[in-house]
Specification:
By secondary structure, the protein is mainly alpha-helical. The protein contains eight helices and four strands. Strands 1-4 form a two-stranded antiparallel sheet. Strands 2-3 form a two-stranded antiparallel sheet. Helix 2 runs parallel beside helix 4 and helix 4 crosses helix 8. Belongs to the diacylglycerol acyltransferase family. GO terms for molecular function: O-acyltransferase activity. Keywords: Acyltransferase, Transferase. It comes from Didymodactylos carnosus.
């Protein structure tokens, strides 16, 4: 958020557990992207596939489930149909041609201390800067909102994450079949 202060002006907040817990506590809803920037960087060929990569052995992408379970809030999968077709970015197109997204994923698997966070931050900054070089393409966009993911007191966060992943992928497969 420090690098891009305009994000705060449009209502974005840091993706931290404390922020989400505070918002849910006062009655707001939170929109989260469990895959984060890593999921956005996997390339057009992998579009419309739920990919919540682990950044490290400790990371499990279950923070959203833990927060929702603690707050007793529903997890509602949402999907924007045709989101990948609404723009053309020549830089990303060329990057996909060279399999740069695959290279990034391969580097992330090694989890080398000190180097991985540096590579991650550089790649994410480059990715964000390159998003400004795109051409809009007129397509019909439709927001699909799925049924809430059911969970109970005895469910683990891992179970809730798996159900959420399946619910989101099912919603995508139903409305974006290709």
């Amino acid at each position: 958020m420090r690098c891009f202060p305009f994000l705060r002006r449009i209502g974005c907040l840091p993706g931290e557990r404390e922020t989400a817990e505070a918002l849910l506590e006062v009655g707001y809803l939170c929109g989260v992207i469990p895959g984060g920037v890593d999921e956005a960087m996997i390339g057009h060929k992998n579009a419309y596939k739920v990919c919540w990569p682990k950044k490290s052995k400790k990371s499990s992408r279950k923070g959203f489930a833990l927060i929702a379970m603690k707050a007793g809030c529903p997890i509602i999968p949402c999907f924007l149909q045709n989101q990948e077709e609404m723009r053309f970015n020549p830089i990303f197109w060329f990057g996909n041609l060279l399999h740069i997204g695959r290279l990034y994923s391969y580097i992330m698997l090694f989890n080398i201390p000190y180097i991985m966070p540096l590579v991650c931050n550089i790649c994410q900054t480059l990715w964000f800067c390159c998003t400004w070089f795109q051409f809009p393409i007129p397509v019909k966009l439709t927001l699909h909102i799925g049924d809430p993911v059911e969970y109970g007191e005895n469910d683990t966060a891992k179970d809730v994450v798996n159900r959420s992943r399946i619910a989101l992928q099912t919603l995508i497969n139903k409305h974006q079949p290709h």
